């Protein structure tokens, strides 16, 4: 009984990792995700290591998780991995207020984001 196992959405040479509810705006997170798109994973890890953005550490952990998923769950070669996709989605926005003069208030938005990183194993072409 029970329902059948869901079909795999990714190709056989791909693995992914998702970081949900990351406390940063999607616009800022997308700047860091844009840095690593299309790069080999070792170059992407080096870029994130020396990035001055606060959120680069979280993106690095997510990329390392995607690499570990590729190696352990899908038996892919770590040296041949490339970041094929890195995209950001909007999540909730916490609304807070900041007391202002004359009894007024102004709104403070505290956005959250979702980050998805997909790594793909590419075959080296022999020239």
UniProtKB/TrEMBL annotation:
**Purpose of the protein:** The globular domain of the protein is located near the polypeptide exit tunnel on the outside of the subunit, while an extended beta-hairpin is found that lines the wall of the exit tunnel in the center of the 70S ribosome. This protein binds specifically to 23S rRNA; its binding is stimulated by other ribosomal proteins, e.g., L4, L17, and L20. It is important during the early stages of 50S assembly. It makes multiple contacts with different domains of the 23S rRNA in the assembled 50S subunit and ribosome.
Q: What is this protein called?
A: Large ribosomal subunit protein uL22
What gene codes for this chain? rplV
Concerning its family, UniProt says:
Belongs to the universal ribosomal protein uL22 family.
UniProt-listed SUPFAM superfamilies: Ribosomal protein L22
Which GO terms of type biological process are on file?
Answer: translation
Classification via Gene3D superfamilies = Ribosomal protein L22/L17
Q: Where are the transmembrane segments?
A: none
**Native species of this protein?**
Roseitalea porphyridii
Q: How does it assemble?
A: Part of the 50S ribosomal subunit.
A Pfam family (short name) is: Ribosomal_L22
